[in-house]
């Protein structure tokens, strides 16, 4: 009898959805389910793993050392037969995907060497610069070297904005907007002041509990991205005005390598109404109108700012004519654009970034992919058609915080896990009787859209 071990001890929401999916998909097929009790108080290193055919759990608990897929099989000590290695719910090495700096480098290399076959646009991500800084004084040298292109743009008065963010920080920490060398210098001076105040930790926490500043000497590595102009904005049913949003897409990567997009995408809205940064008239920019990261919002705010994208059909959209509403055609264009963008990103990371992404054939993983939709040629006098929309990649996250979806959407997360087990573990793609046997990229089957299907040799250390 085959068995699956399920364990997310530090994420009860995720653990419950994983157990629900295993019970619905694997148990009826005769599988035994081993699970931990996430209510128990224990450390990760104390968790004992049973022998299992599938390990579906926290990255830090998976037995990577025991299941290296050099041959794809291992000897069965009882009968001497070759049996498949156990499956793991994470890839061991995937920095090319989940680190902002590695991802940007992989996308750049892929563009320079050869355009991926699935290319949707010349670029799928905003222009990006990566650099290291330990103090504000480093900025002068950087602007003359690594950030020379940024300096030229800022000095040319092109009215272009940029986003600064730490390479590895999360929850919106350290994110800032700037459109001049002076404003960039002011940001680093702010971060340096944070470093100076670090010694007085208790006072610092009390006075800056809501601050998103970072300690520059601890962060060191930063990313600058061009700010995406003309974002698609939506007046959601729970919001009074047009708000900026980003899409949280859940993506299953399987083996080496197929990539799937879960069709039920989330729209995560900024808590305040959107305003073009150009309209601030030298006033301090309110990041609440631009940051769509729900980690900076409380539970009450999240109820208003987290929606299923499909539930927003019929909502007013902009910029452009206010009579435009989000239609099923818009939603389908976003799905197809998202699938193409995700495919290009994963293809770039498996080729140009191969050293830092090794897709084992006996591994699979669910990623949280953040996307942004823009209307490049928006006009205040014209409505927005599906063909006007462009989907951009912002970042890819490992072990996403599914709990941010909220209790009302847990059924959707359950369904994501169910389809992941069906595809990755049982090999059930879900083809219809009348459909082509081979799953075509861009087509959807039972809530999953195939993004990419390319053969890769197994990775390893």
Automatic annotation (TrEMBL):
Keyword Coiled coil recorded: yes
Keywords: Coiled coil
UniProt-listed Pfam families: TTL (PF03133)
One GO location term (cellular component): P-body
Gene3D superfamilies named among the record's database cross-references: ATP-grasp fold, B domain (3.30.470.20)
Coiled coil regions, renumbered to chain: 181-208
Keyword DNA-binding: no
Record-linked InterPro entries: TTL, TTL/TTLL_fam
Protein name: TTL-domain-containing protein
Organism from which the protein derives: Meira miltonrushii
